């Protein structure tokens, strides 16, 4: 059934400041069976689900930063406070690492909230007769299914091996799958194949419940881009990403095309934010996306307000104290060398600063922070853009190349580059160079957005660090072989040792 996507005013961004997380009821709390009785009660649970994504352990902090800091994209510098030091040094990553524990816990907290809603919504539905209220309940369930799928997709990305084939995945460890909130489900890891299938099943449900009406017109009903809510296109964006990770090239092309909107019957709802088209006298649309957290290519972002926000992505790259900057990490020189003179992403992402300890270096301007927050002396705070159109072009280009369709892969990469270049930008790939060019474009476009560790893992590529100016001695000289066990994060030790746990560790557990 095609339903119209409704942006209910009760889910306005300001409402996201309210946290109704019901992870576990204390003994003196209202019993859960009595806590959810009305459509508005279910709405409050949805607000709690969205709010849980503001956690600094997730997209506004560890979940975004750690997978890239662990690789070859940044260097710790002299003066570093040792934040994320164990992760950056690679060989010091332990199953007791609190940063990894926080990611694991925060993702399962999202799942718990979703399960709580889905376990109680049918009781509410049984007492509802109003069609609009029934539509609202469907919408809320769709959002919960999508949020659960998103959380599980991040867990399998970080704590499991790469998906090679259905046959191989049937013999690999996945994650603990919880479908209910107050259940006696065993604490045991499903297979990787079953874990991915669980995610896909949730996305099937979400797609049905979050679909737009066939006559939906964004110009009348409101633009789909730059939204803080889930809709059918967030489902397609995640499906495209997962299909890429599962090596399902046809599906990756199909779902990415639905988002891009240039296929047969496609609806163009998102547009690459241009580096050359100006939104004001001083800024391009691309710059504005990072300085003001608004962009025509943003498919879903985590909403922050001045009264409720999550972590600070920019802190470790600046540590600004209103007087000087003291970065913990600076960009790798090899990354900076990827951008040619016409590539305007370089000036949007990086700017030179003289630091308080004498290092003159281009720092990650991309996460300097939202200008509205800066007016209140809050720096480094950005709304995480979890799904962007640019990623969909990169997904489709890689999938096309894997199919041997180098012409279409070249077209997608060229389209993205033309939106980022002062002039030119066309590129041609072939059987010999496509992976190298796709890798470079993913680094240049998605720098420090949390994709690098997974990319290297699924490509079975290692990396090497060589010392650069003022980099820390411990960690700057590092050679990581392909398929090193540490590409898969260790399962937190407290989960393995929990009473009744049957959770098997990863090779990286120690």
From TrEMBL:
It is found in: Cell outer membrane. Its main location: membrane. Gene3D superfamilies: 1.25.40.390. Residues 22-214 form the SusD-like N-terminal domain. Residues 1-19 form the signal peptide. The keyword Membrane applies. InterPro entries: SusD-like_N, SusD_RagB_dom, TPR-like_helical_dom_sf. Keywords: Cell outer membrane, Membrane, Signal. Residues 359-497 form the RagB/SusD domain. Belongs to the SusD family. This is RagB/SusD family nutrient uptake outer membrane protein. It comes from Bacteroides gallinaceum. The lineage of its organism: Bacteria, Pseudomonadati, Bacteroidota, Bacteroidia, Bacteroidales.
């Amino acid at each position: 059934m095609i339903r119209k996507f409704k942006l209910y005013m009760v889910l306005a961004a300001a409402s996201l400041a309210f946290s109704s997380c019901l992870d576990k009821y204390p003994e003196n709390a209202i019993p859960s069976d009595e806590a959810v009785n009305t459509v508005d009660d279910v709405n409050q649970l949805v607000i709690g689900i969205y709010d849980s994504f503001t956690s600094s352990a997730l997209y506004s902090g560890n979940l975004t930063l750690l997978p890239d800091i662990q690789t070859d994209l940044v260097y710790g510098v002299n003066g570093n406070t040792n934040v994320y030091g164990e992760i950056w040094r690679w060989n010091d990553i332990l199953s007791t690492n609190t940063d990894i524990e926080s990611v694991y816990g925060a993702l399962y907290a999202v799942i718990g909230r979703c399960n709580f809603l889905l376990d109680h919504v049918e009781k509410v539905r049984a007492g509802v007769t109003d069609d609009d209220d029934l539509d609202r309940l469907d919408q809320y369930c769709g959002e919960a299914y999508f949020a659960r799928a998103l959380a599980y997709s991040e867990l399998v990305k970080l704590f499991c091996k790469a998906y090679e084939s259905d046959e191989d995945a049937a013999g690999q460890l996945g994650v603990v799958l919880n479908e209910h909130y107050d259940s006696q489900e065993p604490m045991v890891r499903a297979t990787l194949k079953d874990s991915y299938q669980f995610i896909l099943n949730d996305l099937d449900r979400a797609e049905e419940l979050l679909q737009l009406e066939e006559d939906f017109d964004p110009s009348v009903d409101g633009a789909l881009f730059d939204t803080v809510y889930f809709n059918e296109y967030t489902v397609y964006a995640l499906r495209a990403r997962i299909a890429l990770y599962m090596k399902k090239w046809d599906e990756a092309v199909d779902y990415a095309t639905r988002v891009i909107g240039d296929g047969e019957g496609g609806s163009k709802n998102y547009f690459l934010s241009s580096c050359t088209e100006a939104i004001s006298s001083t800024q391009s649309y691309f710059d504005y996306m990072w300085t003001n957290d608004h962009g025509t290519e943003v498919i879903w972002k985590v909403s922050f307000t001045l009264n409720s926000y999550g972590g600070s992505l920019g802190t470790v790259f600046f540590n600004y104290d209103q007087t000087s900057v003291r970065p913990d990490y600076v960009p790798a020189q090899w990354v900076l060398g990827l951008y040619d003179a016409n590539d305007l992403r370089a000036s949007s992402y990086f700017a030179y600063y003289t630091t308080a300890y004498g290092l003159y270096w281009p720092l990650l301007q991309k996460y300097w922070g939202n200008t509205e927050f800066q007016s209140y002396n809050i720096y480094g705070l950005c709304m995480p853009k979890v799904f962007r159109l640019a990623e969909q072009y990169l997904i489709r280009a890689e999938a096309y190349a894997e199919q041997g369709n180098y012409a279409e892969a070249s077209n997608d990469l060229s389209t993205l580059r033309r939106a980022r270049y002062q002039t030119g930008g066309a590129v041609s790939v072939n059987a010999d160079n496509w992976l190298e060019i796709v890798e470079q474009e993913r680094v240049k476009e998605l720098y420090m957005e949390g994709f690098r560790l997974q990319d290297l893992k699924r490509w079975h590529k290692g990396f090497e660090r060589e010392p650069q100016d003022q980099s820390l001695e411990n960690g700057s000289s590092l050679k990581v072989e392909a398929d090193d066990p540490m590409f898969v994060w260790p399962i937190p030790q407290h989960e393995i040792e929990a009473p009744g746990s049957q959770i098997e560790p990863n090779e990286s557990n120690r």
